[in-house]
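Before relying on records like the one below, remember that each one covers exactly one chain. Contacts with other chains, cofactors or solvent are not represented anywhere in the record.
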Amino acid sequence: MAMKPWLGFGLCLALLGCGAKAPESTGGFQLDPNGSACPAGYAISNSDFTSTNISAISPTGAVLSASVISSGSAPPGLTTALSGDVVFPSTAPASGKMVLIDRYPNSVLTWVDPATGSVIQQLPVGTGFGANPHDYLELAVNKAYVSRYESNPKPGQAPLDAGGDLLIIDPQANKITGRVELATAPDGAFLPRADRLLLVGSDVWVSLQRFDADFKTAGDARLVGVDPVSDAITWTLDLPGIANCGGVARSPSGKVVALACSGVAGDVDPEQNPAPTLRSAVVLLDATVQPPVVLTHFAAAAALGAPIGSTITFANETTLVSVALGDLTAKRTDVAFTLDTSLGMPQMLLDAGAAFVLGDVHCAPGCTDLCFLADAQANALDVWNVTGATLSAQPSIATDTSIGLPPRAIGAL
């Protein structure tokens, strides 16, 4: 199979073996703070999993900067070059900064000034091991949580190096100040696998995927609530029969939280047949009470014949948008779908035509009423306009016109 041109170029950047120069940065961009919960713009991580280029678009999809920073650039303040695995906080940082979560192997946070495109600071959060940070949540000017997905098999070599936790940092001082232990005993072979963070009321919700060390199996999905004042766990909620919850979204009213749960690829049914959709579902939780209460869960994976991906968003109060995962062996392609929570049945929105190509999806109900989906197969953002329960396709948007890397992750600003 011939190598795609963008993949070859990405490898050149990463390996520095082709004599390729880094693309010219198109610099910073102006955001229009609107004083509301509406996004002021979106950051896009374009990647071939080896190299990354960060671009930015307006709330209506206009490209503001095709290359703010990339794996091949070295602006002042950037001491660790970007890897091919860069994502964004699931909640837009209140500071207005663009925060890059460089997951594995770098385990580094990078703050970028959107107005200038300059690097403000970097902070390694690995503390001596590949911590694989998955999310970042600002709580105050001088306090934020970082969920660390990996647990250190040989802790005790450096301060705060256990992993499987929330790392407490001071973004203002650019330093680590503590951690919140998320491992519970006894929990068998399951590690916490801390993933997404969401501030609901006075508690921070933390999604734990609870895989074992080899990712062969997982325990029931778990949510824990953490008091950001005392940094103590205040409640725990297990989801029996559900596993590997990644995507999290809050409804426009704030009353409901949706989880996208992917299940476990190695699961089997009682007859020992492969059953990758067995513990995959969309779960709705009542966010008006602490701890939350499960309202319902939808067997969308079974209906689609594919596990749910790790992204989900509300298009309006009763319409969800998510993706289902393809599989090369099964010759199944990624699909995007909508789910009317009043009916419970998924409806196909898009067939990507390939597996492992659909990334993040973001909608802004009550703002622009647009939904954006990172589509690596199309090398563009797919766009829909939301009218009631109807999503109408709009022209797609090429976000990386500088290098040509495909979009993977989307972060609100």
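The chain has a mean pLDDT of 91.
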